[in-house]
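Q: Here's a chain of 222 amino acids. Please give me its 3D structure as tokens.
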Amino acid sequence: MTETSHIPPIIGESNLPEGAQRILVGAAEVFARKGFAAASVRQLAEASKMSIPMMYYYFDSKDAVFQALLNLAMVYMDQHVMQPAMAADSALESLRIFIKGHVQMALANPLVVRTLMATFFGPEEGAPSIDMFKEEHHQVLMGWIMSLVPRLGKLREGFTPLFVAMLIDDMHHSLVMAVRHLNDPKFEPFKPMLEERLSDASIDRHIQFLLLGAFEEIYDEF
């Protein structure tokens, strides 16, 4: 294993037994490198330095291992991103916490993020037989973003809350994808550019650019 000596916070902050955490870290490394379909239960066990029977003691299938990774990621995002964003004093601060929180989550958990993205954007054939996109969760997330938009100010003519909500959703996905590239050796020549894009100042410029384009109010709080 190349990365399993470090336990990503998404896994380490869970209340799962140490053995289950070892399996999830090893599985994340294998999934990220080989993809879900090509990974075997034996490879997951070997990456975790555990026997196959011990792996089945904690998880009854390869799908269950991936489902556990996804569930932990969603719990982590709720605790570290959504709850602070919802509790912020202003709509602008909520937006900034939402965008920057996703970036910080990805930077702290690059292995898990790479694993999930490799599966989400990989070929459909051989994908996990679970609801990877958690449709209900996504609907709740988009509903919250939609409720945030009118609190940010008066939209310019031609802009709708749904359109701006999609822009916000696209922004945080794009920045998380940049984190994924930052940790991919193939993108090493672009690392300085990616680091600059993910800086606090650059993210503020992304947010300001969106606000200036979509809202009549001029934001000067940056």
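Q: Can you summarize the key feature?
A: The chain has a mean pLDDT of 88.
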